[in-house]
Amino acid sequence: MASDKRTRELRAAARRAMEVAYAPYSEFRVGAAVQTAEGAVYAGCNVENASFSVTMCAERVAIGAAVTAGERTLSRVYVCSTSVEPVPPCGACRQALAEFGPDLEVISEGSDGKLESWTLQQLLPAQFRLEEHVPADEDGADMGPERHS
């Protein structure tokens, strides 16, 4: 895991997001920052809700910020949380990340500064890809994400 300027910026964005997380129910604050191959960084925090099923994870909020800015390809995600141990993204976030960076690097930092890193392929080896399961349309084009962007 590189300790370069881009990684420091990614970490700082994730930590700032964690500080403003809305977690009144679990008190488990999470911040995430995603990075594009060009180095652009987009952050997000978890946003809990009394109706737990509508709670938003930090990773998916960060993905939403990147997509809103027009990004479609991610290379890394940095996750910080109030957990002592580094926490990998949940299953839903892993699949959401796979949509924009199937081979991205995942870095997680625990509250004591301990770091863990994985490739998304290690965390989600059987990624779901719609184009592998949906037949081509009448003109022979598949229905992959590039058809819907």
Protein model, in words:
With 149 residues, this protein is of the alpha+beta class. It has one domain: Cytidine Deaminase, domain 2 (3-Layer(aba) Sandwich). Helices cover 27% and strands 18% of the residues. The chain has helices at 5-19, 58-68, 91-100, 120-123; strands at 30-35, 41-45, 76-81, 105-109, 115-119. The chain has a 5-stranded mixed beta sheet with strand order 2-1-3-4-5, sandwiched between helices. Strand 3, helix 3 (91-100) and strand 4 form a beta-alpha-beta unit. The two termini are 32 Å apart. The mean pLDDT is 92.
Class of secondary structure makeup: alpha+beta
Q: What would CATH call the homologous superfamily?
A: Cytidine Deaminase, domain 2
| Number of DSSP E strands | 5
Written as H for each helix and E for each strand, in order along the chain, the element string is HEEHEHEEH
What share of the residues lie within helices?
A: 25-40%
Number of helices: 4
Low-confidence stretches: none
CATH top level class name = Alpha Beta
Main β sheet profile: 5 strands, mixed
Question: In the CATH scheme, what's the topology name?
Answer: Cytidine Deaminase, domain 2
Side by side, the strands of the main sheet go: 2-1-3-4-5
> What count of domains describes the coordinates?
1
CATH architecture: 3-Layer(aba) Sandwich
* Bulk shape: globular
Give the distance, in angstroms, between the N- and C-terminal Cα atoms: 32 Å
Hey, roughly how much beta strand do the residues contain? Answer: 15-25%
Average pLDDT value? 92
Rg over CA atoms: 16 Å
